[in-house]
Amino acid sequence: MKKDSATVAIVLNAKKAKKRQDGRFPVKLRVTFQRDYKFYAIIYRTQDAKEKSDGGGIPIWEPGEVIAMTGAEYKKVFAAQPSINYNDKNLYLTTLKKKATDTVTSLGKNFSFEAFEEKYFDKPKDDQDLFAALDTKAKTIRKEGRINTATTYEATLNTLKLFTRKEKYPFANINVSFLKDYEAWMTERMIGKKNPRHISRTTISIYLRCLKAVLNESAPPGMAYPFGKGKYIIPKWNHNKRALTQGEVAKIAGYPAINGTMEHMSRDLWLFSFLCNGINFKDLANLKYSNIKGQTIVFERAKTINSSNDNNEITVVITRQLGRIIDRWGTGSGYIFDILKEGMTVEQQYRTIQQTIANTNKYIKRICASLEIPEATTYTARHSFATVLKRSGASVEYISESLGHKNIRTTQNYLADFEIEEKKKWAEMLLPESEG
Fold first, then answer.
1. Residues 316 and 407 occupy one common structural domain
2. How many CB atoms are located within 10 Å of the residue 248 CB?
3. Is the pTM here over 0.70, yes or no?
4. Residues 261 and 342 in one domain
5. Residues 93, 78: Cα–Cα separation, whole Å
6. pLDDT tens digit string along 13-61?
7. Which of 40, 63, 327, 397 can pair with 49 through a Cys bridge, CB separation 3.0 to 4.6 Å?
């Protein structure tokens, strides 16, 4: 292949992924293009296991298993002449690599990671059907273990089905008028939070971005593109990302929760998130004692773990407050907090983390009500961390690095507005009040 063409490899992901208890690491398909790369998990499909059994053989791995190996096994599988015990595994993985290489070759100059994913993974049954494309996108993302993102695409599909009252919908019908009507329909459901179909402004924008992404990837050639200047623009509302002040956070820290209760643990997990650079609860749940390096906690955000950036590590100094929370709730080995268990599937991990978030939100809201301060959630902890740093004089560059953002613009979205009292103070300093 030419130097500017994409390349394909089957690799043992020992640097980025976490080592399992049995000493194995996931084996992944790595596609590299113009110094950027993406990893794709390799799952031994049920249909492959069935074909092996039907042919009189023994399945190579457990059906549905994410393929993983030790370093020694990986070397034996990809030896110049693998032994009979490893030949089937070599053949299976080599075949997958050839399929990926053929896909890259067929795309030629039109290669992009999105185009590769669409062609390499399962295609929609009807390439003219928007709903089929959304369903395929959601399934592909779910296979990659990105459950939260997959759920968002699934929700987008469900709202579109409710809006159109159809099970299939052609790409050709997606135009500016359709998008405006879809937005208006969702906006109507913002009225009354008790409505089970309530859709927030933020969610409306997210669903429209999902729809736009699928159009960018899967719309048939020749379709009139409805997004852009002079056409349909996805709305950007001023989000009320309410961040707590340092004093309000201090009140939460001083709240007299009863030792050992769920309320006590929820308060401490929220404070840990705030103190640990606004760590989100998925990354918090995945923290292990191996992440503790001396007096610091070093981790990578799950959201960017497959990024091509050279260094996505976030380093947090273990303050006395963080240390006390770890001492109080730490398991002593493995995962720091007793949230996830070894051997859980990706789906089980997702459900467990979501339940932990729900429990924490339930109790932290009660605590805020008792303290008579603005309502907070796990999401508020991250915004509060960024905003307290900003108000303390930290540079946006430092805050961006602390949050693990790739660019400062993302960080600025996290920085809440100063309180009206602070604005009034600076406004009055422009021209002090005088007699007459």
1. yes
2. 18
3. no
4. yes
5. 9
6. 877 656 566 778 889 999 999 888 898 888 887 667 777 777 777 888 8
7. 63
